[in-house]
Amino acid sequence: MAITKLHPITSTLGKALEYISNPEKTDDKILISGYACTPETAYQEFEIVKENAMKTNGYLAFHLIQSFAPGEVDFDTAHKIGTELADKVLKGKYQYVIATHIDKGHYHNHIVFNSVSFKDHKKYNSSPNSYYYIRRQNDLICKEYGLSVIEEPKERGKSHYERTLEKKGQSWKSLLRQTIDRAIIQAKDWDEFLLIM
């Protein structure tokens, strides 16, 4: 099973590329490759494409993370699956650098791709639909390799707004959960629980 996350890069493209290329995380840079660019000069190559397209504002790139369950794949297979995912999602239009990290208890890929296509100079459209497309492609590739996939997500995650309110202690949902938990502890039966609520 591989889980994916996608983040836009707005100002730290050089740092993102440096982070994913860390030799300590990538078995001395053995597990790094690029498409339509060289990993060592990807930052400059991404910038040239954006300048030629006259699209230097907005998102600089996108950072796609693909994490595998511990022990489910070896690092070569993880890198191969990540490359297949990038190829399917980006359709040969966007430069990317992929690095497979082996420094944690699970293997995971970092794919940083240019926000502007080198073929038609169109910007990558990041939306909920494009992310669901990434997830579907990821699941299809994992099935091809005999890996498990999440059939039905358990529950929808919290929105950014809800997380912010919760951190401030202003989330009505969190307050309701706390109230219910206290009532359950105090109540001896269902009727008393309803009375306390």
Output mean pLDDT.
91
Largest sheet: 5 strands, antiparallel
Determine the strand fraction and express it as a percent band.
Answer: 15-25%
Radius of gyration: 22 Å
What is the helix/strand order? EHEHEHEEHHHH
**Helix percentage:** 40-55%
Tell the overall outline: elongated
The strand line-up of the biggest sheet is 1-3-5-4-2
**Secondary-structure content class:** alpha+beta
Can you describe what's shown?
The protein has 197 residues and is of the alpha+beta class. The chain has helices spanning 13-20, 42-53, 75-90, 128-144, 160-168, 172-186, 190-196, and strands spanning 2-9, 32-35, 61-68, 96-101, 108-114. Strands 1-3-5-4-2 form a 5-stranded antiparallel beta sheet, with helices on both faces. The model has no long low-confidence stretch (mean pLDDT 91).
Task: Provide a compact summary of the structure.
The protein is α+β, with helices and mostly antiparallel strands and 197 residues long. Helices cover 43% and strands 17% of the residues.
Throw out a few tags for this protein.
197 residues, alpha+beta, 5-stranded antiparallel β-sheet, 5 strands, 43% helix, elongated
Spell out the blueprint of helices and strands.
Layout: E1 2-9, H1 13-20, E2 32-35, H2 42-53, E3 61-68, H3 75-90, E4 96-101, E5 108-114, H4 128-144, H5 160-168, H6 172-186, H7 190-196
Antiparallel strand pairs: 1-3, 2-4, 3-5, 4-5
